[in-house]
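Lab notebook, bench 4. The sequencing result for the construct came back, and we need a structural model before the next group meeting so we can plan mutations. Quick request posted to the team channel:

Model the 3D structure of this chain.
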Amino acid sequence: MMTIIVAADKNWAIGNKNELLVRIKEDLKNFKELTTGHTVILGRKTLATFPGGLPLKNRRNIIMSRDKDYTVDGADVAHSVEELLDIVKGLDDEIFVIGGGTVYDQLLPYCDKAIVTRIGGEYEADTYFHDLDEDEEWEIADSSEVQTSPEVTYRFVTYKRK
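Done. Here's the predicted structure in token form:
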């Protein structure tokens, strides 16, 4: 199974114009600690937002793209959910789904855990994540205390599929 990592505001908004709603230093540090040395799955548009548009270092990157001719140096490319599942089937590794919105929607049914940075605010957004609080299949397994960064308050919440 796979684990989703996402940062969402009070309305489950996750992005606007192909960018994060807000960059929280501690959230990015937590993301790096959790995913380093593991497999990450992301979409082509999310990859384009990374420094230099390059795959994340010290991780196996699998990029989702419907474009059959799309390739990325240093990463595997899956052109469908079925192809992705074939790629990860034999992996003895923790697999993290890291965005964006379309990839989250496609892979949520295959995930049994979600690590959500709940941002204490509301932002202008054009991309949203599934509201796990309203979904009877999911429950909160763990939650940190509310933390404060210079920009915003947030907490790390772990959801597990029931």
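The CA atoms of residues 76 and 139 lie 32 Å apart.
Will bring this to the meeting.
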